[in-house]
């Protein structure tokens, strides 16, 4: 079965590659092989290899488990940090997000 890659822009690809490199570095620092990590994560070696390469098809849960095994789960908070001002100024924070009424874009609004 061929899996379709998730659409990721160039910045996203770079971020995934950097994250994969960090996982690789942490694994090597622990003297673990890729096969050992795959076994601990209960995934195939090719899936773990894709995770270290930053391939967009790997599961987010697998990433969380890998960070946990490597003792770096707390680093996940750095992935999408929330500005401190947002936490302090809770009154200004939106309580919920509502769906917008979809409108059909005009020809000038379509950019492709």
UniProtKB/TrEMBL annotation:
Pfam families associated with the record: HTH_31
Bilayer-spanning residue ranges: none
GO molecular function terms listed in the Swiss-Prot or TrEMBL record: DNA binding
Protein known as: Helix-turn-helix protein
Span of domain HTH cro/C1-type: 23-76
PROSITE patterns, A to Z: HTH_CROC1
Organism: Iodobacter fluviatilis
CDD domains, per the entry: HTH_XRE
